[in-house]
Amino acid sequence: MGKEIERKFLVDEEIWSALKPQKGVEIIQGYISKVPEKTVRVRIKGEEAFITIKGITKGVSRSEFEYPIPKEDALEMLEEFCDQKIVKTRYFVEQGNYTWEVDEFDSPQPGLVLAEIELQNENDTFSRPKWLLEEVSDQPKYFNSNMI
């Protein structure tokens, strides 16, 4: 079974904007299903596309299954099944043994910047970059599926 262990943080935009990498990848995603027990997401990330099924979040963990699909299929699914879409730019920042994924949202919440780190287990320790603010891992309003 696939498992995602993720912690999420708000970002200090002023510090981040001075340090962020020059190049990010555009992500467009929508949700075919977004009931609390399970979400089904379609995502285009640059030239790649994926369908992802996620279970209910327990703490900072949940089951996750993600599979590549043809980009043309993803475009069609986004158009046919997803009334609203999230558009964001993702930046990757290597730090120690981890990669931070920092998302700058264009829609539906322009200006929102969130950082995520995926861990091997819930008790992993990691250093916090100076551009992190409060942790929001347990706040459902910051789950992408709840933003639309």
Your description of this structure?
The chain has 148 residues and is mainly beta. The chain has a single domain, classed as Hypothetical Protein Pfu-838710-001, CATH 2.40.320.10. It has helices at 13-19, 71-81, 144-147; strands at residues 3-11, 25-35, 38-45, 48-55, 61-68, 86-95, 98-107, 113-118, 132-135. It is globular and about 40 Å long. The mean pLDDT is 94.
Look at the structure and name the CATH superfamily: Hypothetical Protein Pfu-838710-001
Report the helical percentage.
10-25%
The sequence of SSEs as H and E is: EHEEEEHEEEEH
**Nearest-angstrom radius of gyration?**
15 Å
Q: What is the architecture at the second tier of CATH?
A: Beta Barrel
Strand runs, count: 9
Strand content: over 45%
Uncertain residue ranges:
none
CA-CA gap between termini: 28 Å
Helix count equals 3
Shape: globular
Order of strands, widest sheet? 1-5-4-3-2-6-7-8
Q: Briefly note the CATH topology name.
A: Hypothetical Protein Pfu-838710-001
Give a quick account of the main beta sheet: strands, pairing sense, barrel closure: 8 strands, antiparallel, barrel
Q: Concise description?
A:
The protein has 3 helices and 9 strands, in the order βαββββαββββα. By secondary structure, it is mainly beta.
Which helices and strands appear, and what pairs or packs with what?
Elements (H helix, E strand, L loop, with lengths): L2 E9 L1 H7 L5 E11 L2 E8 L2 E8 L5 E8 L2 H11 L4 E10 L2 E10 L5 E6 L13 E4 L8 H4 L1
InterPro entries: CYTH-like_dom_sf, CYTH_domain, NeuTTM/CthTTM-like
Pfam families: CYTH
Organism: Brumimicrobium aurantiacum
